Amino acid sequence: MDAIEIAGTALNAHQAWLNAISNNIANVNTAKASSGSAFQAEYLQVSAVENNQGVQVDKVVHGSAAGRLVYDPTNAVASTDGYVRMPDIDLGEQMSTLIMAQRGYQANAAVVDRAKTSYEAALQIGRS
Fold first, then answer.
1. What is the distance between the alpha carbons of residues 112 and 104, in angstroms, rounded to a whole number?
2. Strands (E), the chain
3. How many C-alpha atoms does 26 have within 13 Å on its Cβ side?
4. What is the strand order of the sheet 32-33 is part of?
5. Domain spans of the chain?
6. Most buried residue, 8, 49, 86, 117, by CB count within 10 Å?
7. Is residue 52 within 8 Å of residue 21, measured between CB atoms?
8. Residue 70: which of 79, 83, 87 has the closest Cα?
9. pLDDT confidence of residue 127
């Protein structure tokens, strides 16, 4: 059952990664007052579990709060000078990372499925 448990830890890590990326993409256009902090992108720090028993999410690391100043005088939160603070998130990079996270999740789901099939076949051999 180790294969299923190890792949399960990877599924959990990839799900957390997908959630963080989704949050980043959802907030890519979140404008804040220029005097405040921008939305901070979320990145996961992941490490291996002892004895090669999978992976775990250690913590969420946040990106820069400085963001970037954008001139948008029509925005409701714009300063008197017309500037808003936008997050420093590259949408193209986030989309590429999303694809990698999806592929990793799919690969680990396939490992679980194949291990389950192998265990079922072993049980059938034992019954014969």
1. 13
2. 32-33, 42-48, 55-62, 68-71, 83-86
3. 7
4. 32-33, 83-86, 68-71
5. 2-127
6. 86
7. no
8. 83
9. 79
